[in-house]
């Protein structure tokens, strides 16, 4: 019986999408978010190379480090993360650095050459929002809520 | 000429493009080095944004840095095989210098079988 419980515990941990999602998102404290600069990633976090994870909506931002529009979207991204971290997976893709195969899959499928690029994918990976350019948090929140059935 | 193309995309509103022009390209040794080893092409983002978007996308697909400035290394027959973003005159904060990146591009170009393996034929529409 103990073995069975342990088996189910391990399996549930392995299948938990939270294990693979980026977490602890923060703005890079070394950067000035009111001007152009090129001093490193705009958003830092644990497991920063994670890609799409099924089971919850995913918010994906593809950005460039020296891009002021990306910086403004980075601030919105971290704000959204602080409000929806328990309900939505966040994926942060920095085009300045080499990316994981999981992130490259998203880049190949959705990136069209303009930054920032924002995606909201539903729990199965269908795109609910897929646009280049900045987008207001309210608009993304509306999509989150609809996707979450709220 | 069997030398690679060094394509630099910049914009007047991009401070890092301006910095690279001032610090990297105006260096006489660097200019000589470029003239000796590459066919240099400069593209203004605003003159051809659609074309540049395709280049950015191609560079991203190869898992190379994409953004502005965009530095692309292309074979004479139009295969994108290496690239970078802003490249300072000197190696700085883990970012390779222009010379280091260009040397890497030449080394890769010399290995044609690897170029065939890890490159993308550009078919750009303006």
Q: From the coordinates shown, what is the CATH architecture of chain A?
A: 3-Layer(aba) Sandwich
Count of runs of 4 or more consecutive helical residues of chain A: 4
- Helical run tally of chain B: 5
For the record, what CATH class of chain B applies?
Alpha Beta
The portion of residues forming beta strands of chain B comes to: 15-25%
Helix percentage range of chain A? 25-40%
Question: How is the main sheet of chain B built?
Answer: 5 strands, mixed
Q: Kindly provide the radius of gyration of chain B, computed on alpha-carbon positions and rounded to a whole number of angstroms.
A: 14 Å
Could you tell me the CATH topology label of chain A: Glutaredoxin
Number of domains of chain A: 1
List keywords for this structure.
heterodimer, A: 150 residues, alpha+beta, Glutaredoxin, four-stranded mixed β-sheet, two-stranded antiparallel sheet, 4 helices, globular, B: 126 residues, five-stranded mixed β-sheet, 42% helix
Describe the overall structure.
The complex is a heterodimer of chains A (150) and B (126). Helix content of chain A is 35%, strand content 21%. In chain A, 33% of the residues are buried. With 150 residues, chain A is α+β, with helices and mostly antiparallel strands. The longest helix of chain B has 13 residues, at 49-61. Chain B is α+β, with helices and mostly antiparallel strands and 126 residues long. The A-B interface holds A 36, 38-40, 64-67, 95-99, 104, 107-108, 111-115 and B 14-16, 52-57, 60-61, 63, 65-68, 85-86, 93.
């Amino acid at each position: 019986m103990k073995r069975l419980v342990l088996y189910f515990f391990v399996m549930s941990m392995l299948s938990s999408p939270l294990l693979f999602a980026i977490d602890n998102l923060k703005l890079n404290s070394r950067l000035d978010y009111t001007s152009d600069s090129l001093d490193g990633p705009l958003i830092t976090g644990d497991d920063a190379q994670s890609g799409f994870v099924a089971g919850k909506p995913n918010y994906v931002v593809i950005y460039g480090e020296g891009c002021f529009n990306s910086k403004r979207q980075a601030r919105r991204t971290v704000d959204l993360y602080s409000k929806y971290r328990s309900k939505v997976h966040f994926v942060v893709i920095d085009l300045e650095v080499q990316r994981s195969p999981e992130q490259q899959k998203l880049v190949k499928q959705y990136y069209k050459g303009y930054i920032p690029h924002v995606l909201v994918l539903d729990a199965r990976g269908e795109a609910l929002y897929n646009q280049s350019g900045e987008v207001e948090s309210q608009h993304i929140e509306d999509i989150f809520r609809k996707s979450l059935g709220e | 000429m069997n030398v690679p193309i060094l394509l630099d995309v910049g914009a007047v509103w991009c401070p890092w493009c301006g910095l690279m022009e001032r610090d990297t390209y105006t260096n006489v040794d660097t200019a000589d080095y470029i003239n000796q080893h590459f066919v240099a092409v400069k593209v203004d983002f605003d003159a051809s944004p659609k074309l540049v978007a395709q280049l950015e996308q191609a560079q991203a697909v190869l898992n190379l840095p994409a953004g502005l400035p965009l530095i692309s290394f292309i074979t004479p027959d139009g295969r994108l095989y290496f690239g970078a973003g802003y490249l300072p005159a000197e190696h700085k904060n883990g970012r390779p210098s222009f010379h280091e990146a260009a040397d890497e591009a030449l080394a890769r170009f010399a290995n044609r079988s690897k170029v065939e393996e890890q490159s993308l034929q550009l078919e750009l529409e303006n």
